[in-house]
Amino acid sequence: MSSKQSIKVENLVKHFGSGDNLVRVIEGADFQVDKGELVALIAPSGAGKTTLLMMIGCVEEPTSGRIWLGDDKVYDNKWLTRETRKIRREKIGFIFQAHYLIPFLNVIENVTLVPQTNGVSKKDSEAKAKELLEYFDIGNKARAMPSELSGGQNQRVAIARALANSPEIILADEPTAALDLARSVDVVKMLKKIAIEQDVAVIMVTHDEAMLPLCDRILKIENKKVVSSDVPKDIHIL
Ligand SMILES: Nc1ncnc2c1ncn2[C@@H]1O[C@H](COP(=O)(O)OP(=O)(O)O)[C@@H](O)[C@H]1O
Ligand SMILES: [Mg+2]
User: Fold this and answer.
1) Which of 37, 46, 113, 204 is 20 to 30 A from 162 (CA-CA)?
2) What is the pTM of this model?
């Protein structure tokens, strides 16, 4: 696979349940996402966007197909490693709609929690966290509690936390759904900046058409498959 390619999915299938309760969510998806790309994933509610992200993130096991992350084939009709947790920890940063910061830990403790759990020293993880918080203009909030921050600031902390392990891939599930337009634009521009500056592949689920012109490309779940299209250039925001 080419060195630009970060995520590749081939003939991916996902069913839930069986017999009368069989739900066919994805029926043979093929697509790829390059390093440095910010791709919007769109589809109606219930179409399988979260399921697709969770399969790429090695959280949800596919029914069949193949998945590559970076140079590693991780799934070929079965997980090719027992250590899906390790892959997840090392390669993937997740961002969710609600920021899910731990309310009784301050900002820097939230950002350093996972790296420290992974064995990174307090000193090193805090240095990296401070750098990330500075990068997102919230360096002065390191000792604040999540409840003292605005929604947009909390989402920046959540993005900093997703980046704390220098992931190759960021999977963001409706990261702007709880934010107003200006804050949403802010977050999406930040994701684009990360993609470019850190050569990360970002897939962002969104229902907000105003965010699409800020992305590089659109992936759409259609008829249980994934189709790629260009972003509209004619939507004006702000
Ligand atoms: N654990 C599960 N068991 C059974 N069905 C599920 C499960 N998770 C998701 N589904 C079904 O898969 C479909 C896609 O869900 P989801 O990926 O959450 O869609 P989206 O994120 O696009 O709204 C829905 O029909 C949902 O009910
Ligand atoms: Mg969803």
Assistant:
1) 46
2) 0.91
